[in-house]
């Protein structure tokens, strides 16, 4: 038992024990994308998503329901400024149905981690009748 205590103390003294990186949590409500009158018949639904950042590893999970047509793809988009649309940068896995789940796990660059912390990432789900976007939501702490 003394050997175990000494080993742990020696590991700390030698800097061999690293403190666990605290996880950062993000979440969003998924709501219909901004639309005009012509899109009212094709864009509908609701959902939620959450993301956990541990070091540079981002894990995203979520659910959605009420789409008018089956989901086709889902992405994480990165904006230059929070609240402004940006390009899709990471692909999420999505059920090809009118309700289901989204998920994904990614190793982010240092710039992407900083962008996430600044609220510049959003989730977007596309559907057959809304190929330019059906539901979206900004990942916030």
Write structural notes for this entry.
This protein is mostly beta strands. The termini are far apart. The chain has a single domain, classed as Immunoglobulin-like (Sandwich), CATH 2.60.40. The protein is globular. 14% of the residues lie in helices and 47% in strands. The chain has an 8-stranded antiparallel β-barrel with strand order 1-2-3-6-5-4-7-8. The longest helix is centred in the N-terminal third of the chain and has 12 residues.
Question: Strand order of the main beta sheet, please?
Answer: 1-2-3-6-5-4-7-8
Gyration radius (Cα, Å) is 20 Å
- Main pleated sheet: 8 strands, antiparallel, barrel
Tell me the fraction of residues in β-strands, as a range: over 45%
Ends apart, CA distance between termini:
43 Å
General shape? globular
Relative helix content: 10-25%
Instruction: Briefly note the structural class of the backbone.
Output: mainly beta
């Amino acid at each position: 038992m003394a050997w175990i205590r000494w080993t742990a103390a020696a590991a700390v003294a030698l800097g061999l024990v690293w403190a666990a990186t605290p996880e950062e949590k993000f979440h969003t409500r998924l709501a219909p994308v901004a639309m005009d009158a012509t899109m009212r018949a094709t864009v509908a639904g609701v959902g939620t998503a959450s993301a956990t950042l541990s070091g540079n590893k981002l894990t995203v999970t979520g659910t959605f329901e009420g789409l008018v047509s089956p989901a086709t793809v889902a992405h994480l988009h990165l904006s230059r400024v929070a609240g402004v649309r940006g390009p899709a940068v990471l692909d999420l896995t999505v059920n090809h149905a009118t309700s289901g789940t989204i998920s994904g796990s990614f190793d982010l660059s240092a710039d992407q981690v900083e962008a996430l912390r600044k609220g510049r990432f959003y989730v977007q789900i596309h559907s057959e009748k809304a190929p330019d976007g059906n539901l979206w939501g900004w990942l916030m702490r």
